[in-house]
Amino acid sequence: MVIKFSVEFKQQSVDCALYHAHFSISELANHLGVGKSTLDKWIRQLVPNKTSRCELTTEQQQIMALENEIKALKMTNVILKKVHVYFINNLSR
Prior knowledge:
mainly alpha, Arc Repressor Mutant, subunit A, 71% helix, elongated
């Protein structure tokens, strides 16, 4: 039985794999309910200028994971600053 995945599901899976680079392709594929080679193929198809994550060294994968963590922390910092301003403005009234 062949399962057809939508383009949206494929793109979301690739985005997830790139964002969560600290997880292995096998772990992500298992979580998404697809095969490891399928997910790797989608990454190579949808992000042609990126090297397949299976071909990356451990150090390169760690760097990607740290870069993603930095992005997430920066976003959290921006949100916390906005929350701080909101509470300062509302508590001073």
